[in-house]
Structure formats: C-alpha cells, structure tokens
Amino acid sequence: MELEEMKTLWENMSERMEKLEVLNKQNIMEMTELKYRNKFNKLRLYETSGAVVCYIIGLGILLNLDKLDTWYLMACGVFCMLFLFVMPIFTLGSINRLTKLNLSSFSYKEILVRFEKAKRRTLVIQRISIASGVLLMFATIPVADKLLNGNDFFQNEIKAPIWYAIVFALIFLALVSRWGYGWYMKITQSAENVLKDLED
User: Fold this and answer.
1) Contacts 24+ apart (CB under 8 A), 163-172
2) DSSP character at residue 198
3) What is the distance between the alpha carbons of residues 198 and 184, in angstroms, rounded to a whole number?
4) What is the DSSP secondary-structure string of 121-163?
5) Which carries the bigger pLDDT value, residue 200 or residue 158?
6) Cα dist. 45→23, 39, 164, 178 in Å?
7) What is the spatial distance between Cα 9 and Cα 90, in angstroms, rounded to a whole number?
8) Are the C-beta atoms of 97 and 27 separated by less than 8 Å?
9) CA nearest 105: which of 22, 29, 191, 18?
10) Cα 175 versus chain centre, distance
C-alpha cells in the first residue's frame, strides 16, 4: 500500500470517527433529554388531574355564585373561584418550563442556569400554593356550608365537632403539603442529577 493510499484511508477513517462521535453525542443528548423529561411525567399527570378537579369545583361555585347572598360569603366564593382557576395555570406553567428546557440548544452552564431558575420558580409557586391553600380551606368552609346546606356559617353557632374537623383538616393539609413539597424537591433534584451527568 502506497503512502498516498494510506493517507487517504486515514483521512476517511478520521472523518468517520468524527461523524460517529457527533452522532454519539447527539444520541447521548437525546437520551438525556428524554430521561430528564420523563422525570416530570408523573408530576404533570397528578397536577393535570388536580387542575381538572379545581376547574370543576370552581365552575360549580361560579354557577352558584348568586346563592352567596352576603358580601362576606361572596368574597369567600370569589376568592375560592379565583384560586381554583388561577393556581393550576401557574403550577402547570412552572412544570412546563422545567420540561421544555431544550438541552441541545444551550451550553452545559446555560442549561444549569436555566434549570435552576425554572426550579426556583416552581418551588416558590408551590410554597405560595401551600400558604394560600390554608386560606382556601378557611374560605371554602362557609362557601360549602352555604351551597350544600343553605346555612350561613358565620351566623350559626360553631359546635365542637366542627372545630375538631377544622383542626383535623389543618393537620391533614399540613401533612399533605409537606409530602407534596418534598415530592417536588425529590423530582427536581433527580432531574438536576440527570443534567449534571451531562458534564461527564
């Protein structure tokens, strides 16, 4: 084999190796992106289901708003309705920002910066949701009492079983909120670990 032939063969092999390396990097990036997005699928499913429930309840309040015949019941009803219509939009929007992070369009550092920003926003929205969820619970009680029983919660004597139910509901809400926030933390941390594997 002559020197020219060997040189041509070497260049061809070198070109093929470069193409294979580029293809390999693309495959790794696509697999990482898929793995990253899959981290949020279950979360998105739960939040979408929750959003549907929120919209159904919010629509029920809207259709019965005329039954809330005092200013304070109306205020509670409007707060409940706004919360149930608006909060799912923020929650699902924050999850979409996390999942739509295009890994192949940015440098590794830029990916981590964008992820961190979306993660922070998502966790802030969750904290706001938890805090306002307590307000929602207290606003829902008089609205539900009026719409389901025809009673004005604020004008009736509140008996001991109702206080027990409120305390139980607050404890339950605190436990569920803590569990849900922990789940968000776990999923976002797991997704961040997938992104950090890109550095290797």
Assistant:
1) 166/141, 169/137, 170/134, 170/137
2) G
3) 22
4) HHHHHHHHHHHHHHHHHHHHHHHHIIIII---GGGS---HHHH
5) 158
6) 33, 11, 33, 19
7) 58
8) no
9) 29
10) 18
The three-class DSSP label of residue 89 is helix
The predicted pLDDT at position 56 comes to 95
Dihedral pair phi/psi, residue 161, rounded to 5°: -60, -35
Residue 196 has pLDDT above 80, yes or no: no
User: Which one-letter DSSP state was computed for residue 64?
Assistant: T
Distances (CA, A) of 35 to 87, 106, 107, 183, 195: 27, 17, 18, 18, 10
pLDDT over threshold 60, residue 200? no
The C-alpha atoms of residue 51 and residue 69 are separated, in whole angstroms, by: 28
